[in-house]
Amino acid sequence: MDTIASLFSFITTPVSWVIVQFHSVYGKIFGPDTGWAWGLSIVSLVILIRICLIPLFVKQIKATRAMQTLQPEMKKIQERYKNDKQRQSEEMMKLYKESGTNPLSSCLPILAQSPFFFALYHVLNGIATGSTIGVINESLLASARKAHIFGAPLAAKFTDGSAKVEALGASLTDVRVVTAVMIVLMSASQFYTQRQLMTKNVDTTVKTPFMQQQKMLMYVFPVMFAVFGINFPVGVLVYWLTTNVWTMGQQMYVIRNNPTPGSKAQAAYLERLTKHVTHHGKTRRRSEKTIVKAIVAKGRDRNEFERSFVNALTKAGLVAQADGTVVKGEAQAVAQTEDGVTATGAAKRQQPKRQTKAQRQSGAAKVAGDTASDSPDSSGSEGKTTSLEKSDEPQDAKPAAQQAPKGGSNGRSRAQSGQRKGGPQRPKSPSKK
Fold this sequence. Notes:
By secondary structure, the protein is mainly alpha-helical.
């Protein structure tokens, strides 16, 4: 541990200075030797560090989203080169380079916190051993050794013996109970944070090994915190419990307002956004415009939740624009269909209703009656069909009265006598006698 402390000695002095500054503020409120003053100083240190790490957290979210997008391509590479690990690694690195992603980006917040964690551990270890470190002098060291959090000294550990705990002015039972409760809370908060990520903010349409790894980490991280937590001082447990609670709240905010496409969180968000937009008739916040703009830009690549959102806007008489705004549409206004193709809002052709058997029979009887009324016997017409009526006969077909010659005595036509209408006549074959 001395080797690790020497590696992070460059940040020990800044960390101790920040703690002392916060202690001077809280000491005036709760008293300089109380556990509230020292404990809240550590909590404030965590909040200050996490605020500074927000840009890295945003980068972590983007890297995680990019990795989820690449999962289908990664799976294809693994299946194609499953017998050639070297070629598989080369293709993976090529894919990362082309897409501009880095798998280590998702670990940036944890890696960035590591120096502060070891510096705080070194400071608290100095308090436990009674040695000054950084800007903590003899008077501050004595004040910190008197500080207790729910009866447990700031520098006590779960594995400490009764003699060391009594030297810090506490009982072994109080130290074991307080540290055990904090370890359980620390592990539970880590488990809930990872479970929330897996159950709400993961694209359920893509089943990849990455999801299995994340599910495994959901159980591995809490166990690691429980194992290593028994060797952490109470002050370090306060640090990790605070940072886990901060991570959980920060992730809840991101899941609610900027969910992963295709996840359950996106379905819930778009449902809330639909109610909000249809009620006000427009997008009011910049984040809402960003989400709507991304959905419009996808076109045919929208998932089922995004298509439902566009359809709900269309039913409400609203149209999503390319800049993320929403305008009111009219009966003949241009609207977007669910597949992203722009089409005019003309009235749709209605399908005829299916008639019953009785209606079909009555309709057929009515048609037959109309036909009978249009016959020559009833109307006195010559039986000619108009140009709008459809005839079953060929157009060149004529009535028999028009085809018969006027001067024929026997009334037989040339067609009936076997002769052609025009042209040379067919010679008769000689009869056999």
